[in-house]
Design a protein that fits this description.
elongated; 5 strands; alpha+beta; 140 residues; 2 helices; 2 domains; single chain; 3-stranded antiparallel β-sheet
Length: 140
């Protein structure tokens, strides 16, 4: 085969560096994204948890201009149509201590996703409670 002829609009692809007509994804990029999607759909990606709470100031996460203290938490159950299939979702929102509405965080998934999220939130909540209780006992 003599190769492909490039037209004036053809340019090297940013993903595979080959010259092909413009389109959203070239074959190598599509393969990578399909493989990542398949891995994500298996539901066995690692969840990173730490054995103890990390002080926000050590991470540079102190109260900055974009941080908001939650004064009232609202958690709502919902269903969202994803590709025509209703999926369970949880919506987190609330108000800050001054009464201003917080943005909504919508977490859609399937039964397994929400079950893992529930377990993660439960474990991290108990970890924060235990650690704070320990720190109160030590500071006395």
């Amino acid at each position: 085969m003599l190769g492909t002829l490039a037209t004036v609009t053809d340019s090297p692809c940013l993903w595979c560096t080959q010259v092909h007509p413009p389109r959203f994804l070239c074959d190598p990029a599509e393969e990578i994204l399909n493989a990542l999607y398949a891995r994500g759909m298996r539901g066995n990606l690692p969840t990173v948890t730490f054995p103890e709470p990390i002080p926000a100031d050590e991470l540079g996460l102190g109260f900055g201009p974009g941080d908001r203290l939650v004064g009232q938490l609202h958690v709502q159950a919902a269903t969202l149509p994803v590709a025509g299939v209703h999926r369970p979702a949880v919506i987190f929102t609330g108000r800050d201590p001054y009464g201003a509405n917080l943005p909504k965080w919508i977490y859609p998934g399937d039964d397994g996703d929400l079950g893992r999220m529930l377990d993660l939130v439960t474990r991290m909540t108990h970890l924060a409670i235990r650690t704070a209780a320990t720190q109160r006992r030590v500071s006395r």
